[in-house]
Structures are given as C-alpha cells and as structure tokens.
Amino acid sequence: YLSTMGRHEEAIVEANRLLTLDPLPYVTRSVVINVYHYARQYEDAIEVGRRTIELDPEDARIYWEMAVNYEQLGQHGDAHQSRLAALRLSATPAEAIAVYDSLYRQLGPDAYPQWMFMRAGPQSCESAYGLVTAAWIHMRLGEKEKALDVLEEAYEKREGIMLTINADPKWDLLRGEPRFRNLLRRMNFPE
User: Which of 160, 143, 152, 139 is nearest to 183 (CA)?
Assistant: First the structure.
C-alpha cells in the first residue's frame, strides 16, 4: 500500500522490518525487492535479489524480479541473462528459449516484449498473459494507444495488479499521456 501511494521511504522502512522478522520466505524478499523497485532504488532491489538467489538459486521468480531492475538501470545484458535463467528454471521449452536468445541478439532490449507477443500465437496477448501484462507488451512495442485501451479494460474489469501502475517504473513511458493520468486519477492515486 505505502509504495503504491508513493510513500516510498515509509515502505522501505516497513519492508526492511519485515525482512528482519521473517527473512527466509520468497514472499518476504519479493515484497522488499518490489518496494525498492517502486522507489526506483534498483541497486538495492538487485542486492536483495542476489542474497535471495544465494538462499534458493532454483527459484525462477527472483530472476524475473532481477531482470526488471537490471533493465531499469540500463543493464540489458544482465536483464537478458536473468530472463534466460528464469525461463530455464520455469521449464520453458528449450526451443522457445533459443528463439528469445536469438531475438535478443537481433533486437537488444526490445526482444523480450517481442518474444512474448510472438509466443501469444494466434490468441491475443490479452488472453495469453492477462490484461496488464498485455498492455505492457503493447506499450513496449510502441503501441501506446493499444496499451491504454487494454489498461482501460483492466481497470473496468478490476484486475488487482492495476494497483501497482502508479508506482511501477515500467509504466513511465505512459506517464505523460493524458489518458494514463486520467486513469490514475480515476483510481484515486495522489497526484
């Protein structure tokens, strides 16, 4: 709650208190990583991720979280390696991983949303991944209006993950858009 409302310093204090009270579970560490991520303290998020990997190197979820933080720092090679690890640990077919890896060599940081779009196949991204993730894919592919349309639909359908769009840096590409600001206003986020 604190992070999504932009109260990042308070959120960091509470997240670190949680980490001292219950340091081992993935959920605890994920909360801390996300609090740092929403506060745009990516190095701290990555450090918690590294310590989590030391405890459980076979948990794919942490590699996904590391990837988004590396990406925000512009460390696209590290983001790519984290995604590859996550895909392998998630039992993604080797052929699909090879396609993503090849796309990365061709497209660089734009490879992952392109790969997700391709993986959706004949069904829509919305059906394959859910509305909010589909909106992110469309945004990253340069389809801002489509991304905003899908976010509007997610809002209408009350998708829970919508609660993070105010704080999550991955939506920064849309923050200047009047429709996005209007959506945040309708969700009662502070301006």
Answer: 152
Alpha carbons 83 and 187: distance in angstroms, whole number: 31
How far is 114 from 135, CA to CA, in rounded Å? 13
Q: How confident is the model at residue 23 (pLDDT cuts 50, 70, 90)?
A: confident
- Tokens 């969700």 appear where? 187
- The stretch 70-96 carries a mean pLDDT of 97
